[in-house]
């Protein structure tokens, strides 16, 4: 087990390095480079810009710049936001809760519904439910998340007036109930695509588990079908799902950005878009790196959990 | 013991097993029909409609659909939505298609080389693929779109840059398994060069998963283009695209909901048809179902 952990951890480090290189390349692709904020300032002369470039060390070879940048990232110096002068990490930190709340609740919804649909589809293979679930999943994967959100706002906020059309809470009412009220639509909208993905994978995983020998044994022993399902099949089917949860992380972040835009949810995705609009590149880069690090960490955690839960991997 | 049924050996390609299996997949046929009709509508439609997509008629703004000879209504500037929809379709479909071509090309190249050579070349290439996959697609897309000029060609390129990784993964896995087959060993014994084996022997046998990946990549590319255009970083007005038609629609949701509903339906139809076709192709090309 420790050998496995060490190897997995080393892999993550390598991945982090590669990710940082890609990030650095993107950073330097931005027109004007790190001096972009001054590109449009009429008061800045070429001489001034040259002096700044010298001061910020932009004349050094790219390799040196990269290591300097990476070292600063590791130390926690992610730059200063162009917009309000606050450290980038502080700015990101302010928006973390909103995004995690959204991602967390939609993941819970997606897992709950997706698992149920997948298991039901597997146990009643080729039934009407199964066909409907399969086609429904494929269509759900084809619906643009933001469009689904707009339709949701139109039906539930404008026509029916049941749910608020945006924001995390109503001003003047910050109760938990209010938060939940605002959370419902964005979570469901974000969850749609993931329900589709989960249900399809769960169906396959359940089918795989049902065809195993130990299920035949359990049935022969006289265990009731329901108990067979609950105790033996579902547990084994859920194993690859843990890995799937890790792999889905970047996809959830993508969906979160779009959902936050439509519902004016004050999260990291909205921050990313706003910062792009303001040309606030330090925050943009910070969020890019943050999301990549989050994904790598998430995958690492998922793999460790699977190793802890599945004895076959530990003892291999 | 099960008896093997002798299947008719195809002498013409339209009699092949793969085609027959594909044609029995109802959903895939539906997808094919939908996308054919949609493409036809986008190519021919603007010539058949009474209004031009660029004609601004402020007297006819916000006309609802099915009420006048603006068949699908008009937008805030009085432009005919049906005409705009089909012109936008041309751009969205073209961007999707060419983004697929580019990402298939890059992904297959990387996948074949990584899969066949193995060793540290494969390790470096596949770790790079993993690195790219660690970024949420839209974050990367938006950062690149903001950094570079947003012309349709540029959009196609950056969508391809964020889509080639999945293809590379699939191709690498396929090549890795094909590498162990006897025909590769035979090729090596015959003294065939490495490139010859990679691209003239192994690659043609890996086409199945590549074709499936291609259809699914088109679906994904169309969706990604819609996302970034909706957010304002993709195809810029006055060029219409399904995504940027939805850009201004949110503020008019109460008064003119058709502005939001109609382009979304077009996107959903296009993307789901490619998903259906990809699913059908995957089933048709699945070797495990073969009896012979």
Automatic annotation (TrEMBL), chain B:
Gene3D superfamilies: MetI-like. Residues 89-278 form the ABC transmembrane type-1 domain. Its main location: membrane. It is found in: Cell membrane. It is a multi-pass membrane protein. InterPro entries: BP-dependent_transpt_permease (IPR050366), MetI-like (IPR000515), MetI-like_sf (IPR035906), OppC_N (IPR025966). Belongs to the binding-protein-dependent transport system permease family. The chain crosses the membrane at residues 27-49, 93-116, 128-147, 153-171, 210-235, 255-278. It comes from the Bacteria. Pfam families: BPD_transp_1, OppC_N. Keywords: Cell membrane, Membrane, Peptide transport, Protein transport, Transmembrane, Transmembrane helix, Transport. This is ABC transporter permease. CDD domains: TM_PBP2.
């Amino acid at each position: 087990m420790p050998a496995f952990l060490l190897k997995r951890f080393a892999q993550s480090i390598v991945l982090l390095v590669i990710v940082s290189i890609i990030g650095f390349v993107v950073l330097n692709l931005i027109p004007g480079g790190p001096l972009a904020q001054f590109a449009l300032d009429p008061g800045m002369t070429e001489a001034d810009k040259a002096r700044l470039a010298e001061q910020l060390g932009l004349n050094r070879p790219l390799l040196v710049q990269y290591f300097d940048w990476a070292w600063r990232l590791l130390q926690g110096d992610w730059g200063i936001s162009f917009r309000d002068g606050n450290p980038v990490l502080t700015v990101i930190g302010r928006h973390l809760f909103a995004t995690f709340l959204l991602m967390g609740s939609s993941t819970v919804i997606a897992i709950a519904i997706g698992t149920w649909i997948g298991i039901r589809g597997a146990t009643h293979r080729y039934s009407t439910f199964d066909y409907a679930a399969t086609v429904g999943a494929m269509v759900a994967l084809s619906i643009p998340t933001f469009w689904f959100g707009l339709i949701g706002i139109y039906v539930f906020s404008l026509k029916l007036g049941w749910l608020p059309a945006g924001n995390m809470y109503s001003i003047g009412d910050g109760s938990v109930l209010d938060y939940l009220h605002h959370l419902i639509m964005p979570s469901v909208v974000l969850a749609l695509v993931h329900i589709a993905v989960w249900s399809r994978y769960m169906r396959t995983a359940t089918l795989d588990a049902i065809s195993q020998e130990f299920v035949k044994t359990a049935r022969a022993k006289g265990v009731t079908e329901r108990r067979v399902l609950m105790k033996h099949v579902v547990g084994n089917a859920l194993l690859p799902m843990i890995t799937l949860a890790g792999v889905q992380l970047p996809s959830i972040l993508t969906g979160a950005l779009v959902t936050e835009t439509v519902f004016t949810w004050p999260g990291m995705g909205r921050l990313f878009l706003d910062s792009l609009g303001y040309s606030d590149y330090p925050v943009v880069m910070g969020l890019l790196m943050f999301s990549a690090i989050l994904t790598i960490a998430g995958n690492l955690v998922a793999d460790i959990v699977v190793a802890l839960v599945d004895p076959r991997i530990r003892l291999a | 013991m099960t008896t093997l049924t002798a299947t008719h050996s195809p002498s013409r390609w339209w009699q092949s097993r793969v085609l027959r299996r594909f044609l029995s997949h109802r959903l895939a046929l539906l997808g094919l029909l939908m996308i054919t009709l949609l493409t036809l509508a986008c190519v021919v439609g603007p010539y058949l409609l009474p209004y031009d997509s660029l004609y601004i008629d402020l007297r006819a703004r916000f006309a609802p659909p099915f009420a006048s000879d603006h068949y699908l209504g008009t937008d805030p500037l009085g432009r005919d939505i049906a005409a705009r929809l089909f012109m936008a379709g041309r751009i969205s479909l073209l961007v999707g298609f060419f983004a697929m071509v580019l990402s298939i090309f890059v992904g297959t190249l990387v996948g074949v080389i990584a899969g066949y050579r193995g060793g540290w070349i494969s390790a470096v290439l596949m770790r790079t693929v993993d690195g790219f996959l660690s970024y949420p697609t839209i974050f990367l897309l938006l950062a690149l779109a903001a950094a570079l000029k947003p012309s349709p060609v540029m959009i196609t390129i950056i969508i391809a840059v964020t889509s080639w990784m999945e293809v590379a993964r699939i191709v690498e896995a396929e090549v890795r398994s094909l590498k162990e087959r006897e025909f590769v060993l035979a090729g090596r014994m015959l003294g065939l060069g490495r490139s010859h084996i990679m691209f003239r022997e192994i690659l043609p046998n890996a086409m199945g998963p590549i074709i499936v990946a291609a259809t699914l990549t088109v679906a994904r590319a169309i969706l990604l283009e819609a996302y970034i255009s909706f957010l304002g970083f993709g195809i810029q007005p006055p060029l219409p695209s399904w995504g940027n038609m939805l850009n201004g629609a949110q503020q008019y949701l109460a008064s003119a909901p058709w502005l939001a509903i109609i382009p979304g339906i077009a996107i959903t139809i296009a993307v789901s048809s490619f998903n259906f076709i990809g699913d059908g192709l995957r089933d048709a090309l699945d070797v495990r179902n073969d009896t012979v």
